[in-house]
Amino acid sequence: MGHREDLLEGAKRCLLEKGYARTTARDIVAASGANLASIGYHYGSKDALMRQAVIASSEEWGMSMAEAPAAAEGAPASADPLERFAETWDRVLQHIATEPEFIAAQVEVLGLLPRDEGLREAIGAVLPEGGEGLVALFEGVPDTEVDAETARIVGSFYQALLTGLMVQSLVTPDALPTGHDLAAALRRVTTGRVL
C-alpha cells in the first residue's frame, strides 16, 4: 500500500478507536505510519480524510453485512416477503451486535451532521447507494436491479430502521427487537391486527 491507502486505513482505525471528533492528524499519522504532510498532499485536510474514512468504513460494513451467511446454514431465504424481512433483520441485528465500535462511530457522525456541511454533503452523496444496497439485501436481488425510485422510497425506510436500531443498540443492547418482532410490528402497523 502507498501513503494514501495507509492514511485511509489509519483513519478508519482511529474512527473506531477514538471516534470522529477526537481523532487528530497526529493520531492518524501514528496509526498509519505515514507522515503529517502526506495528509494534506493526498486528502487536502484531516477532515477530508476522516470523511473518506467514514464513507469507506460504512461501505465495508454494508458489504460484510450483505455477505454474512443466513441464520440457517444453507437455507434459502424465504419466499414470503415478511418472513424474508424478519430473517434479514435477524442477520443485520447480529451484525450490529458484533460491531459496537463501528456503531458508536456511526452514531457519533450522525450527531455532527447539522454542524458539519462537508460531512453532511459527503454522506448525502452516498446515501442513495446505501438505499440501493439495503433494498438489494432485503429483497435478495443484485443492487443493479434496484431502480432509483425504489432505492429512494424503500431504501429510506430501511435506512430509518437501521439508524434507529443502531442507536437503540447503544442505549439498550439487551432489549433490541428481533427480526420477527420487527415483522410483527410491521404487520400490526399495516393491517391493524393485534400482535
From TrEMBL:
Q: What is the superkingdom listed in this entry's lineage?
A: Bacteria
Record's keyword terms, sorted: DNA-binding
Q: Where is the HTH tetR-type domain?
A: 1-61
Q: Which InterPro entries match?
A: Homeodomain-like_sf (IPR009057), HTH-type_TetR-like_transc_reg (IPR050109), HTH_TetR (IPR001647), Tet_transcr_reg_TetR-rel_C_sf (IPR036271), TetR_C_31 (IPR041583)
Q: Which residues bind DNA?
A: 24-43
The cross-references to PANTHER family, in alphabetical order and at most eight, read: HTH-TYPE TRANSCRIPTIONAL REGULATOR RUTR, TRANSCRIPTIONAL REGULATORY PROTEIN
Kindly provide the name given to this protein in its UniProt entry.
TetR/AcrR family transcriptional regulator
Q: Which organism is it from?
A: Streptomyces siderophoricus
